[in-house]
Amino acid sequence: MSTWNEFLRALSEPVPDRRPPLSTARRRWVRAVPYGVVLAMVGSLLPTGIVGLTEYYGVNPSLATALAVVQAGALGLALTRPLAAWQLVAPSVVVGAIATHGAAAEQPWPWPVTTLLSYLFLMVLLAVRERGRTLLAVWTVTFLGCSLAWTVFNENFDGSSVVACAVSGAVLLLGWSLRGRGEAQRRLAEQEQISETERAGRTLLEERARIARELHDVVAHHMSVIAVQADSAPYRIEGLPAAAVDEFGQIATAARGSLAEMRRLLGVLRTAGTGADKTPQPGLADLPGLLATVAQAGVRAELAVDDGVHALDPVPEAVGLSAYRIVQEALANVVRHAPGAAAEVRITAADGALTVLVDNAPPPGAAPAVETSGSTGQGLVGMRERVRLLAGTLDTGPTTGGGYRVTAVLPLDVRAAGPADAASGETTE
Predict the structure, then answer these.
(1) Which end is more exposed in the chain, N or C (fewer Cβ atoms within 10 Å of the end residue's Cβ)?
(2) CA 142, 146, 147, 148 torsion: positive or negative?
(3) Which tens digit of pLDDT belongs to each residue from 33-87?
(4) Looking at 72-86, 90-104, 164-178, 368-382, which range is the least confident one?
(5) Which of 402, 408, 403 is nearest to 355 (CA)?
(6) 157-163, long-range: CB within 8 Å, 24+ apart, which pairs?
C-alpha cells in the first residue's frame, strides 16, 4: 500500500524546483527560445491535429478540436507546470484512442502522429523539470497503457506504441541525467560560494586577531607605565594626602589587573602553535630596514618622509605600527606581482593625519600589481582592518601607467578614533 501511495504521489506532486523558471533567464534571447519553440509547435500541431482527426479518423469535429487544443495547448502550460500538463494530456490520449479505434486501419493507432509528437515534446519539458521518481511513474503509466492497448486490441495494434514507449523512455532518461548533472553543478556552485564566504570571514577574523596581538604590546607598554607611575607617585611627590595615596594605589592595582586580563585575552587570540613574540613591534623608524629587505627581492623602493613627520612628538605607536604594516603589505604585493619594479613610499603628515602612499610602476612587459596576501598578513584585508581600527581611509587601485597605488590616511589622534567611528571612513578598491 505504501508503494502504491508513493506512486500516486509521484504522479500528482510536482517537485519544488529551486532553479529559476525559464521565464526569468537573464538574457532576453534565452528567455524567448522556449516560448518560441512552444509557440511554433502549438501553431503546427493544433491545425494539423484537427484536420488529421477529422479527415483520416472520422472523429467528430468538436471532439477533434477539443483533443487538439488540449494536447497542443498543454505544451504552453508545461513550461512552468509540466506535471499538470501531463495530467491533462494523458486522459486526452485515452479519449483519442477510444474515439479513433477501428476508424482507419491504415492509420497508426492508438497514437496518431500529432498526438505522438505532442506527447514526446511534453516528455522533453517534463524531463528537465521533474524529479526521477515522477519521470519513472509517468513512463510506467505510458508503458502500461500501451501494453493494455496491445493486449485488448491486438488486431489494431501497430508500432506506434513501441515508438511511444521507447522514445519517451529515452527522452525521460536523458532529461533525468541532464537534470541531475545540472543539480549537482548548482549545488557545487552554492558550496563554493559558501566556502568562499566562510574563507573570507575566517581570513578577516585571523587578521583581526593578528592585529590585536600586535597592539597588545603597544597597550601593555602604556598600562605598565601607568602602573609604575601610580606606584611611585607617593615616593616622588611629597606631602600627598592619604586619600591621594590610596587613589594612586587603586590606579596601580587596576592597571596591573588590566595587564593580567590582557595577557589572558592574548592567550585566547593566539592561534595554536603560535608562541609569544618577544620582538618589539615595528614603526616608522623601521621602514628603511624594510625597504632594504625588499630590495634583496628585486624591488627598488625609495622612501621619502616629509619634515612634518619628523616634527611630530612622537607618532603614536598604533599609528606607526599600522603605517609600517600597510607599507609591508603593499611592497609584498609588488614583490609577488611585479618583481624588478620600482616603488615609491612617501610618508606625510598634515591636518592631524598621517598619509602613507605606496606607488609602483611595473617594469616593461610585467603585469601590474594586484591584491594578494603578503607574507605577514592578508593583503588588502589587513590594510582595511588597520585603517578601520584608526578610523582612517584607504584608497587602492591601478594607476594609468599600469602600476598599483595604495594610499592610507591615518588620524594621529588615536584617542578620538576607534572601530565604531571607522564606518565614516570610505574604502575604495
Answers:
(1) N
(2) positive
(3) 677 788 888 888 888 888 888 888 888 999 999 999 999 888 888 888 889 999 9
(4) 368-382
(5) 408
(6) 157/109, 158/108, 158/109, 159/108, 160/108, 160/109, 160/110, 160/111, 160/116, 161/110, 161/111, 163/111, 163/116
Q: List, by residue range, all CATH 3.30.565.10 domains of the chain.
A: 284-428
CB distance 89 to 41 below 8 Å: no
Residues in the chain, total: 429
Cell of 14: 510536482
**Which region, left, alpha or beta, applies to residue 397 given φ > 0 means left and ψ of -120 to 50 means alpha?**
left
φ and ψ at 26, to 5 degrees? -70, -45
For residue 64, which amino acid is it?
Answer: A
Q: Which three cell numbers stand for residue 228?
A: 609604575
Cα 290 to Cα 306: distance, rounded to the nearest angstrom = 18
Q: What is the pLDDT of residues 228-262, one digit of tens each?
A: 888 888 888 888 888 888 888 888 888 888 877 77
The one-letter code for the residue type at 213 is: R
Under CATH, domain 284-428 is a member of which superfamily? Histidine kinase-like ATPase, C-terminal domain (3.30.565.10)
Other C-beta atoms lying within 10 Å of the C-beta of residue 341:
21
DSSP alpha helices (H): ranges in 237-285? 242-269
Tell me which of 160 and 363 has the higher pLDDT. Answer: 160
Could you tell me the strand order of the sheet in which 353-361 lies? Answer: 300-305, 342-350, 353-361, 404-411, 393-398, 427-428
Q: What angle do CA 73, 74, 78 make, to 5 degrees?
A: 130
Which runs of E-coded beta strand occur in 194-322? 300-305
Scanning the structure block, which residue is given the C-alpha cell 492508438?
Answer: 110
**C-beta neighbour count of 329 within 10 angstroms:** 25
265 touches 294 (CB < 8 A): no
CA distances from 213 to 202, 293, 422 (A): 16, 24, 20
The rounded percent of the chain whose pLDDT value lies above 90 is 13
43 contact partners, CB below 8 Å, separation of at least 6:
none
Residue 171 has pLDDT above 60, yes or no: yes
DSSP lists the bridge partners of residue 344 as 302, 359
pTM higher than the cut 0.85 = no
C-alpha cell at 267: 592567550
For strands 427-428 and 393-398, give the pairing: parallel
Cross-strand partners of 301: 343
Instruction: Tell me the C-alpha distance between 134 and 146, whole Å.
Output: 19
